[in-house]
Design brief:
Layout lengths: L1 E5 L2 E7 L5 H12 L6 E7 L3 E8 L25 E4 L12 E4 L20 E7 L1 H8 L3 E4 L2 E5 L5 E6 L7
Antiparallel strand pairs: 1-2, 1-10, 2-7, 3-4, 4-6, 5-6, 5-7, 8-9
GO molecular function, one term: isomerase activity
Protein name: Peptidyl-prolyl cis-trans isomerase
InterPro entries: Cyclophilin-like_dom_sf, Cyclophilin-type_PPIase, Cyclophilin-type_PPIase_CS, Cyclophilin-type_PPIase_dom, E_coli_cyclophilin_A-like
Length: 169
Protein backbone atom coordinates (compact mmCIF):
# COMPACT_ATOMS: atom_id res chain seq x y z
CA UNK A 1 0.00 0.00 0.00
CA UNK A 2 1.12 3.51 -0.80
CA UNK A 3 -0.52 6.59 0.73
CA UNK A 4 -0.51 9.81 -1.25
CA UNK A 5 -1.08 12.86 0.96
CA UNK A 6 -2.29 15.88 -0.99
CA UNK A 7 -3.46 19.31 0.04
CA UNK A 8 -7.03 18.03 -0.55
CA UNK A 9 -6.63 14.82 1.48
CA UNK A 10 -5.17 11.34 1.30
CA UNK A 11 -5.73 8.40 -1.00
CA UNK A 12 -4.23 4.93 -0.89
CA UNK A 13 -3.15 2.79 -3.82
CA UNK A 14 -2.32 -0.89 -4.12
CA UNK A 15 0.09 -2.05 -6.82
CA UNK A 16 -0.58 -5.11 -8.97
CA UNK A 17 2.96 -6.52 -8.86
CA UNK A 18 1.79 -9.84 -10.31
CA UNK A 19 0.07 -8.65 -13.48
CA UNK A 20 2.01 -5.42 -14.10
CA UNK A 21 5.46 -6.04 -12.59
CA UNK A 22 7.53 -3.67 -14.75
CA UNK A 23 5.12 -0.78 -14.31
CA UNK A 24 4.56 -1.43 -10.59
CA UNK A 25 8.32 -1.59 -9.89
CA UNK A 26 8.85 1.61 -11.86
CA UNK A 27 6.11 3.43 -9.92
CA UNK A 28 7.36 2.06 -6.59
CA UNK A 29 10.90 3.27 -7.35
CA UNK A 30 9.60 6.79 -8.06
CA UNK A 31 7.72 6.62 -4.73
CA UNK A 32 10.80 5.37 -2.84
CA UNK A 33 12.89 8.17 -4.36
CA UNK A 34 10.43 10.86 -3.21
CA UNK A 35 9.93 11.88 -6.84
CA UNK A 36 6.19 12.53 -6.53
CA UNK A 37 6.46 14.79 -3.49
CA UNK A 38 5.96 18.37 -4.63
CA UNK A 39 4.35 17.36 -7.92
CA UNK A 40 0.82 18.40 -8.84
CA UNK A 41 -2.22 16.95 -10.52
CA UNK A 42 -1.73 19.02 -13.66
CA UNK A 43 -4.49 17.64 -15.91
CA UNK A 44 -8.02 17.12 -14.64
CA UNK A 45 -10.90 16.19 -16.93
CA UNK A 46 -14.26 15.63 -15.21
CA UNK A 47 -15.81 12.30 -16.16
CA UNK A 48 -12.50 10.99 -17.52
CA UNK A 49 -9.35 11.10 -15.37
CA UNK A 50 -6.98 13.07 -13.13
CA UNK A 51 -3.30 13.09 -14.13
CA UNK A 52 -0.21 13.87 -12.12
CA UNK A 53 3.29 12.82 -11.27
CA UNK A 54 5.49 14.93 -13.49
CA UNK A 55 5.14 18.68 -13.01
CA UNK A 56 5.81 21.07 -10.15
CA UNK A 57 3.35 23.76 -9.07
CA UNK A 58 5.29 26.16 -11.34
CA UNK A 59 4.47 23.83 -14.29
CA UNK A 60 8.08 22.72 -14.62
CA UNK A 61 8.58 19.13 -15.79
CA UNK A 62 10.70 17.00 -13.49
CA UNK A 63 13.49 14.90 -15.03
CA UNK A 64 12.62 11.20 -15.18
CA UNK A 65 14.30 7.87 -15.67
CA UNK A 66 14.17 6.09 -19.03
CA UNK A 67 10.78 4.97 -20.43
CA UNK A 68 9.48 1.50 -19.61
CA UNK A 69 7.82 -1.25 -21.65
CA UNK A 70 4.06 -0.86 -21.99
CA UNK A 71 2.21 -3.59 -20.05
CA UNK A 72 -1.27 -2.66 -21.26
CA UNK A 73 -1.42 -6.11 -22.88
CA UNK A 74 -1.53 -7.85 -19.47
CA UNK A 75 -5.33 -7.80 -19.20
CA UNK A 76 -5.85 -5.03 -16.63
CA UNK A 77 -8.63 -2.63 -17.59
CA UNK A 78 -8.96 1.16 -17.32
CA UNK A 79 -11.93 1.16 -14.96
CA UNK A 80 -12.96 3.59 -12.23
CA UNK A 81 -10.32 3.85 -9.52
CA UNK A 82 -7.44 2.29 -11.44
CA UNK A 83 -4.07 3.95 -12.01
CA UNK A 84 -2.45 3.80 -15.43
CA UNK A 85 0.73 5.23 -16.86
CA UNK A 86 0.53 8.39 -18.94
CA UNK A 87 2.62 8.38 -22.09
CA UNK A 88 3.14 10.11 -25.42
CA UNK A 89 1.81 8.75 -28.72
CA UNK A 90 4.66 6.23 -28.65
CA UNK A 91 3.37 3.08 -26.89
CA UNK A 92 6.52 2.42 -24.83
CA UNK A 93 7.17 5.99 -23.62
CA UNK A 94 5.79 6.00 -20.05
CA UNK A 95 8.14 7.30 -17.37
CA UNK A 96 6.75 8.81 -14.15
CA UNK A 97 3.41 10.42 -14.95
CA UNK A 98 0.25 8.51 -14.13
CA UNK A 99 -3.49 9.04 -14.17
CA UNK A 100 -6.41 7.80 -12.13
CA UNK A 101 -9.51 6.78 -14.05
CA UNK A 102 -12.71 8.40 -12.75
CA UNK A 103 -14.80 6.60 -15.38
CA UNK A 104 -14.70 3.25 -17.14
CA UNK A 105 -12.38 4.18 -20.02
CA UNK A 106 -12.34 0.99 -22.07
CA UNK A 107 -11.15 2.93 -25.12
CA UNK A 108 -7.78 3.20 -23.30
CA UNK A 109 -7.41 -0.59 -23.02
CA UNK A 110 -5.05 -2.68 -25.13
CA UNK A 111 -6.57 -3.91 -28.41
CA UNK A 112 -3.46 -4.76 -30.46
CA UNK A 113 0.25 -4.20 -30.90
CA UNK A 114 -0.12 -1.27 -33.30
CA UNK A 115 0.60 2.28 -32.11
CA UNK A 116 -3.14 2.97 -31.92
CA UNK A 117 -3.94 -0.34 -30.23
CA UNK A 118 -1.38 -0.53 -27.43
CA UNK A 119 -3.45 1.28 -24.85
CA UNK A 120 -2.47 2.57 -21.43
CA UNK A 121 -0.98 0.24 -18.82
CA UNK A 122 -3.03 -0.16 -15.65
CA UNK A 123 -0.84 -1.15 -12.69
CA UNK A 124 -2.67 -0.22 -9.48
CA UNK A 125 -6.00 0.71 -7.93
CA UNK A 126 -7.21 3.20 -5.36
CA UNK A 127 -8.20 1.25 -2.25
CA UNK A 128 -9.14 4.21 -0.04
CA UNK A 129 -9.78 7.90 -0.63
CA UNK A 130 -11.76 7.83 -3.89
CA UNK A 131 -13.68 10.74 -2.37
CA UNK A 132 -10.43 12.77 -2.59
CA UNK A 133 -10.01 11.73 -6.25
CA UNK A 134 -13.59 12.85 -6.98
CA UNK A 135 -12.87 16.13 -5.16
CA UNK A 136 -9.85 16.63 -7.46
CA UNK A 137 -12.02 15.76 -10.46
CA UNK A 138 -14.48 18.56 -9.62
CA UNK A 139 -12.02 21.47 -9.34
CA UNK A 140 -12.16 24.39 -11.75
CA UNK A 141 -9.50 24.25 -14.46
CA UNK A 142 -7.79 26.64 -16.84
CA UNK A 143 -4.96 26.76 -19.39
CA UNK A 144 -1.48 27.53 -18.06
CA UNK A 145 1.74 27.68 -20.09
CA UNK A 146 0.16 25.78 -22.97
CA UNK A 147 -1.26 23.06 -20.73
CA UNK A 148 -5.05 22.63 -20.79
CA UNK A 149 -7.28 21.35 -17.97
CA UNK A 150 -4.91 22.57 -15.24
CA UNK A 151 -6.50 23.11 -11.81
CA UNK A 152 -6.71 26.83 -11.01
CA UNK A 153 -5.42 26.12 -7.50
CA UNK A 154 -2.52 23.62 -7.41
CA UNK A 155 -3.35 20.17 -6.06
CA UNK A 156 -0.01 19.17 -4.58
CA UNK A 157 1.29 15.75 -3.56
CA UNK A 158 2.78 16.69 -0.20
CA UNK A 159 3.96 13.27 0.96
CA UNK A 160 4.12 9.67 -0.25
CA UNK A 161 4.20 6.94 2.39
CA UNK A 162 4.93 3.32 1.54
CA UNK A 163 3.06 1.26 4.14
CA UNK A 164 3.47 -2.38 3.16
CA UNK A 165 6.53 -2.62 0.95
CA UNK A 166 5.54 -4.96 -1.89
CA UNK A 167 7.78 -7.90 -2.59
CA UNK A 168 9.90 -7.09 -5.60
CA UNK A 169 11.35 -10.12 -7.35
Amino acid sequence: MIIFSTNLGDFTVELDMERAPVTSKNFLKYCQDGFYEGTIFHRVIKGFMVQGGGLTAKMKEKPTRDPIANEANKGLKNVIGTLAMARTDAPHSATGQFFINVANNDFLDHTGTTNAGWGYAVFAKVTAGMDVIHQIERVKTTTIAGHEDVPREPIVVEKVTIVDEPTVA
